[in-house]
Amino acid sequence: MTEPTGRRERKKAATRRTIADTALRLFLERGYDEVGIRDVATAADVAVTTVFAHFASKEALVFEQDQDFEHRLARAVAARPPHEPLIPALREEIRAMVRHCSAPAAAPIWQLVDRSPALRGYEESMRLRHAESLAAAIAADPELSRTTTACRTIARFVVDAHSLARGSADPEAAVDEIFRMIDAAWAATDPARAGRAVANR
């Protein structure tokens, strides 16, 4: 997670972290449906309004790094060196995320998510939002020159690669396998390649 700068920002980040850690502990101890926002606020020693100041919903408490992951994907596109290929940069970012989310300590959290329809629905909407954000970052790069459809399709593939690889027996090998297919799909959308194919007919 990106480290905040400034005393006020650090204090806000610490409060957010405390709320998220407290909520997750309660969810794992009692079950997601058995814990309310008021329970979280009481255990974290903050007001209910403070919880909602940091998290828009109860589901968001489980996915505390949601926005950080979204920003990391967009940054992988925008911050890569000039002329560096897109897909390897995204592969490295997804690999790091999968490594984080497939660690043994994360297993109880994903079991919690799998048992809750509300959390599964939130995760799905989160993935769609991440894909749209990534598609916008790809479309904004003048070097990449792809259609809106191509940007959105590749972004969806990349975001889905995370959940597919995370649930596999060998997450890192799965990332590599999935990204070989993504790389081929991205290459197929290259306008220069399409032009050459037309010329050779």
From TrEMBL:
Xref: InterPro entries: Homeodomain-like_sf (IPR009057), HTH-type_TetR-like_transc_reg (IPR050109), HTH_TetR (IPR001647)
GO molecular function: DNA-binding transcription factor activity; transcription cis-regulatory region binding
Keywords: DNA-binding, Transcription, Transcription regulation
HTH tetR-type domain ranges (all copies): 13-73
SUPFAM superfamilies (alphabetical): Homeodomain-like
DNA-binding residue intervals: 36-55
Protein name according to UniProt: Transcriptional regulator, TetR family
Protein species of origin: Saccharothrix espanaensis (strain ATCC 51144 / DSM 44229 / JCM 9112 / NBRC 15066 / NRRL 15764)
